[in-house]
Design a protein that fits this description.
The chain is an alpha+beta fold. Helix content is 41%, strand content 23%.
């Protein structure tokens, strides 16, 4: 059965984002969203390339030598068919992965949390598990990965919807007013 679409200010959102419970459980997934097998990392906006580039020295402090070498050799981003994305290392980890034991975390976000930069991370990462697309306007959909099963279980315990889990990122991308309209529409 196809999920319903909710429309607010010409943005379509899958009802799954409201109905599905989700809370990341890094101890179980180990940061799988940052290490999925792919030649590419995360989608980037053109303006994010410039922001990351200006903060690259601070971000690199959180990366392994292997990841720093990849950036030095090939840069941190690439373009394919007009789309920008981060590079990956060994077709696996995003070039910005910073390991804490066996858990993959974002080196950009770590630099942000430590107050070294004022950019949290690419919005595509911040919104995960929500993915954006275009179809006569912006469409938000829930991207399902079996690696995120622990997040679904923890989300059931915390009773946190994807919408609420991604509140900060949604407000960053679409504004607080838009987010409040969604909450009002669904009656929460």
């Amino acid at each position: 059965m196809q999920p319903d679409l909710i429309e607010i200010d010409n943005i379509l959102m899958s009802s799954e984002i409201v109905e599905t419970h989700f809370t990341c459980d890094l101890k179980k997934c180990k940061g799988a969203c940052c290490t999925m097998e792919s030649k590419f990392g995360a989608p980037l906006k053109h303006e994010e390339i410039e922001i990351i580039g200006k903060n690259l020295q601070e971000i690199k402090e959180y990366l392994s030598e292997e990841h720093k070498n990849e950036i030095e050799k090939n840069s941190f981003w690439m373009e394919m068919n007009g789309e920008y994305m981060t590079r990956s290392v060994n077709n696996r980890a995003c070039v910005f992965v910073s390991w804490e034991g066996d858990i993959a975390k974002c080196g950009i976000e770590k630099a942000y949390r430590d107050g070294k930069i004022n950019f949290i991370k690419p919005v595509s990462c911040h919104l995960f598990p929500i993915r954006t697309g275009q179809f006569s306007g912006t469409v938000l959909r829930y991207e399902k990965y079996h690696e995120c099963e622990p997040a679904l279980k923890l989300g059931e315990k915390t009773k946190t919807s994807i919408l609420d889990f991604c509140k900060e990122a949604l407000q960053r991308e679409f504004g607080k007013e838009w987010f409040l309209k969604i909450k009002s529409l669904i009656g929460v």
